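Example record for the data management plan.
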Amino acid sequence: MKIQIYSDTICPWCFVGKRRLAAALAQRPQLSPAIVWEPFQLNPDMAPEGADRDEYIKAKFGPGGFGQMGDALLEIGKSVGIDFDFDRPGRVPNTIDSHRMMTFAATQGLQDALSEVMFRQYFGEGLDISDPDILAAAGAEAGMDAAAVESLLGSDDGRAEIHQSDAAARAMGISGVPTFVFDNKYALVGAQEPAAFLELFDHLESEAA
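Corresponding structural encoding:
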């Protein structure tokens, strides 16, 4: 089974979806899917330096900010072991370099580890995951080769490919994340409960049989 996860590295629901997928897979230990994280930028036109978080939230959600959705996310996060701290990030970053890191991590089988580190950095520690030093630290924690990460971040390698992949996802009809695509046939949109994943796992297994 192949699972493609279309996600952005500053998407809180993507972090929740990651945990819920993991919970579902823990209930189906016989499965060993190939999981590939695919890039999707929530803000493809974001300036390279990012944006002030308060101004961004006000423009996106109005004067009330997250409001009830933020409160719900805090509770949902706790239910899957995530301590969201939405007050800590001072800026909303441009995520293209974090996606370049994720694409590179795929060549080493470290996408899952790197995504976990970057989600925690941004949502738990308020770190700017467009900063090369912070990305390098994330790569080191995930087990990536430091010299290779430094070389990547010092170049434009993979930048055009991220834009192309993002555009391809939108052409497929993906407009929000997380979106989980199974064996290029079925999709689950949003951070759904583990039961939704389990139902699809069972359907795929019955099809294969």
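Summary line stored alongside the record: The longest strand covers residues 2-7.
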